[in-house]
Amino acid sequence: MEKIIEKIRKELIKNADEKTRLKGEKYFRENVKIYGLKSAQVVQISKDYYKTIADKSKDNIFSLCDELWKSGYMEEAGIACLWSYNARKQYVPADFKVFERWVNKYVNNWAACDTLCNHSVGTFIEMNPAYLNELKGWAKSGNRWVKRASAVSLIVPARKGLFLKDIFEIADILHSDPDDMVQKGYGWMLKVASQAHQKEVFDYVMSKKKTMPRTALRYAIEKMPPELKARAMVK
Predict the structure, then answer these.
(1) Is the pTM of this model over 0.90?
(2) Which residues, other chains included, contact 159 with Cβ-Cβ below 8 Å and sequence gap of 6+?
(3) Residue 98: CB partners within 8 Å, gap ≥ 6?
(4) What pLDDT is recorded for position 1?
């Protein structure tokens, strides 16, 4: 395990660019640790080194992901997210606790939150819908990223028209959250859900618009026709 992680870190350092690092740091409001690579480079390194892993059992992949998360570097977190998704065919219900631990312990910016949750957690939820109730628990967390995770984990399922009732329940829980990262997260969830369920999402927004934060509302109606947007935006 240590050898492949060590090789990846050397590769990341070798490809790091100072301008990219500084630009990345300015892009986030949070303090983030960045080597300084572009996303495409990280994806390629992830693919190249994944091929070299002899033992692709989920337990081994998740152990490697743990090591990558621990570093605190965004690029290593990105590789961990990609690798955990690669192991999706091996997911079992007990893996939810692993994802929950990663979100609580390591996720500290929107990029890591969205990359992990859109893919690994979202896929897990599709495979194990009983865990939707756990996401509703996340929505009540005191951690902004766990709250955002409760919504963005449903982005891909929402695109498929799934779990609309649960999407509305999570939006209800997050409705008045003052954190714009949470507002954007659940607004994005509603926006994606509107592509399969426009009327239902529009009716939901209209029923909540007097109290829904404007940031969440704007996100939710972004893909709707102009006439519906205009109606939703009237105070």
Answers:
(1) yes
(2) 192, 195, 196
(3) 62
(4) 58
